[in-house]
Amino acid sequence: MGISSAPLNIRSGFGFTTGIDVGRQSLKQIVVGLLLFKMAGTFPTAPRAVLDYTTAKAGNPFVEGWYADPDTEYYDNLYWIYPTYSDVYEKQTYMDAFSSPDLINWTKHSSILTAANVSWAHKAMWAPAAISRNGKYYLYFGANDIQVDEIAAGLVGGIGVAVADKPEGPYVDAIGEPLIGNFYNGAQPIDQDVFIDDDGQAYIYYGGHSHANVAKLNDDMVSLGTFDDGTTFREITPENYIEGSQMIKRKGIYYFMWSEGGWGGPDYSVSYAMSDSPLGPFKRISKILQQDGAVARGSGHNGVINVPGTDIWYITYHRRPLSETDGNHRVICYDRMYFNDDDAVKNITMLVKDNFADGKMIGWITYGDAEWNVVDQRLTLSTAEDDNWQLATLDTNFADFVYDGLITVVAGDGPAGLVFRATDKTAEGYGSYYAATIEVYKQGSKLTLSSVSDGSTSTMESVNGPFVTGAEYHVRVTAVGNEIKVFVDDLGDPKITVQDTAHSIGASGVVIGPSTSARFGGISIAHPSS
Questions:
Q1: Is a pLDDT exceeding 60 seen at residue 300?
Q2: Per-residue model confidence as pLDDT tens digits over 385-403
């Protein structure tokens, strides 16, 4: 992804962070850092609403579908995500985009670039990088996964450039051939990022096969310039570089980011370097994003969002859901990116939240025939008609955690509540898990912590209300080792404390009992130290 100097940020509530921010202007030089609007030479005005979240408030992934390699841009008061369609190479013949005014509600723009509009591309259309200049919108992309021996055999591939009159396209091939169609300094021509510096000079950073190059782009954005020594490509490969170049600028510092490890494996991750020059040198500082066995695997190939006029930043990236077995299937996410006082990047924490503000339940898995919906920013089950408990879970695998949720019993006796450390789930509501639930019935109400094993439910501890139908309660569960605590509204005084070892690790979610309707919101699951 190519950006210049502008910040972006996100922050979210319910006791844990979730962040996102907004900005304005439309050049790629605006995407990352304190965007200097090149043509006017002025800072963009501050956004009307500061998107200060800690992670994607409405949940990660933040859009539906299989996507990877998310690049970002900010055009005309909208945040844009340009990803790779994540499937087998032969099916990667088009690119979609997504736009949002608030980093919560996203509009899909389908097939903004297709192989039909690129005469030389026929597969593996990867890692788009977007930028705007001279009233036009440019999309740089890799195609055909070209290898050295294939080039020698006369096959064509590499990095192309397409142009459009609007951010959503349609984009058409600008030059009829690859902009970079060969290996220079050992770098495979893929995974490009385009960046316009404050002085107006545009650069393209790219490379696979463990080598990275930078080259100048001319003002026309469709041809390459040369450096003072007459060369076109300069190698900038840092330690452990594999692919996924990304450049941003913040406070006059150039941050070069890249992906390490194999894209199909669990060790895929993001590292970075800092420099006082766009040409480096780039000395590896540290790894800042990697998999979390409780949240997702293979987290890498990042972009960056900066909320214009702020120092709020988000890292966009793809990852693989824990239960996904197809290596080609990845999803795109974002989390907050913070900096230390010395401007070094802090390690990224992948947070798990969903406030359902987008009206969707992306990433949730339901069990049974009940129809779950999102209504007024609450996950809702109208009525569980059969005799089984109805489960909806996230693809997580927490052992120790702090789990928050908002629970409302709408009708029926209950129970309704949070499930955790869930395994062996079935459509009949069977499985193994703990459940912290609220029940409201004619004779009174109660809070119960239960242990469920293969359809058999045992009450571990129960305390009386008062709880009433239609009221929303903030329930928090903390689990560290064999100690489990359940809080309601008063988060300093647990209502239930037990010691138990029946279930040690598993998914988190929500549950509703027979003949009951309920609503859930403000879901947040985090490691105890997060």
A1: yes
A2: 667 889 999 999 999 999 9
The yes-or-no answer on residue 191 being catalytic is no
For 340, other C-beta atoms within 10 Å of its C-beta total 8
Q: What is the pLDDT of residues 65-77, one digit of tens each?
A: 999 999 999 999 9
Nearest to 212 by CA among 145, 285, 157, 279: 279
pLDDT-derived band at 266 (thresholds 50, 70, 90) equals confident
Beta-strand ranges (E) seen in 101-173 are 107-114, 126-133, 136-143, 158-164, 172-173
Candidates 69, 191, 198, 404; catalytic one: 69
Choose, from 96, 243, 335, 354, the residue flagged as catalytic. 243
Cis geometry, peptide bond prior to residue 321 (ω within 30 degrees of 0): no
Q: Of 191, 195, 160, which Cα lies nearest the Cα of 175?
A: 160
Q: Is the pTM of this model over 0.85?
A: yes
pLDDT surpasses 60 at 13 = no
Domains in the chain (CATH in brackets) are 61-297 (2.115.10.20), 364-526 (2.60.120.560)
Distance CA 459, CA 492 (A): 24
The pairs formed by 493-502 with CB atoms below 8 angstroms and a separation of 24 or more are 495/447, 495/463, 496/436, 496/447, 496/449, 496/460, 496/461, 496/462, 496/463, 498/449, 498/460, 498/461, 500/434, 500/451, 500/460, 502/432, 502/434, 502/451, 502/453
Active site residue 87: no
